[in-house]
Amino acid sequence: MKRLLAAAAAMGLAAAAFATATAGPAAAATACRVTYTIGSQWPGGFTSSVNLTNLGDPLNGWTIRWSFTAGQAVTQAWNSTVTQSGAAVTATNATYNGSVATNGSVSFGFNGSWNGSSNPVPTNFSVNNVACNGPVPTTGPTTPGVTTPPPTTAPPTSPPPTTGPPATPPNGTIRVYWLKPTDVQYDQRYPDGIANVMREAQRYYQQELGKTFRLNNPVVEVVNGDHPRSWYENTPNGNECYWWVVFNMQQELMRKLNLRAPDSRWINVGEISAEASCSGGGGGGGWVILSGHDADGAAGIGGNMNRWYGGMVHELGHAFGLPDSSSTDGTPMSASFYNYPNTHFSQAQKNGMLNGPYGSFLN
């Protein structure tokens, strides 16, 4: 962590949800609303999030139940303890998110398996044994009177067609990029997964500071690189191999998108699908630059998602101007980020971000 700060200073750096298909609400007018979101889906696996909005009296602990109808199974969950018996799924709050005020909300996510043929969204949610009934949701963004088709059964091998470059986002926005080398196949899990990590970090900052940052729309801008993966990995850039991949990525993003380092207009988050055995990444000065293992982790290929959520919270802290903690102190600016979400910013860290050079980005 300290080495990140030192090495990147010479380069103008201090080192370092889901792109959703949102299910329509399954709701009861008097008690609860549950939104089930399929974030990404590929042969044999998928990632979903569940959001509970409490429409009744304040909750001091919650249990959400539903049943799958096509043999789906939960394989890993975060921000909740999830058990399954046959088709029946039970999710209970973690120790830190059981209290939900009236009109407040809480969310958790999970990875699951499916049969590759049908992955319908559950409709039979209950909260603390009270049914949440309402319109049947779909697996895509809903418009009244319009039926949305289900998601594809495998990640597309080429990006969806575009009608032109995305509009320049307003100042004060966090922009996120996935740089895809020329010999890396397009995989929808990467923009979807990176967006999911950013939305979870956005939620965490709101929880911790009472304020959070604004993300671009779309959350992740896919940038086609100019070189094969090996070029980013083996072209020297910076004083040690640790930085070559991420500095090569950062400088290409700056050139292609007219970015700066530091950049007062946006906080920029870049991830690249390239990594040598010595590669790393970091954050600072309004930037987060991460190599292949972080991109893989966000895409659901790198194990426990809390590791990648905590890592992004940590690096964004650097982007907002925070240094590493000097010890493992329970804050996400130390190695305690590996314990995410059981880690919290100190008051001094909160003040440092809110009063720092990018404090106006938090609202």
TrEMBL record:
Region (Disordered): 136-171
Record bears the keyword Transcription: no
Residue ranges occupied by any CBM2 domain in the UniProt entry: 25-135
Sorted UniProt keywords: Signal
Annotated PROSITE patterns: CBM2, PROKAR_LIPOPROTEIN
Comp. bias regions, Pro residues: 147-169
Residues making up the signal peptide according to the UniProt record: 1-19
Origin: domain of life: Bacteria
InterPro entries assigned: CBD2, CBM2/CBM3_carb-bd_dom_sf, CBM2_carb-bd_dom_sf
Positions with biased composition (Low complexity): 136-146
A Pfam family it matches: CBM_2
Protein name as annotated: CBM2 domain-containing protein
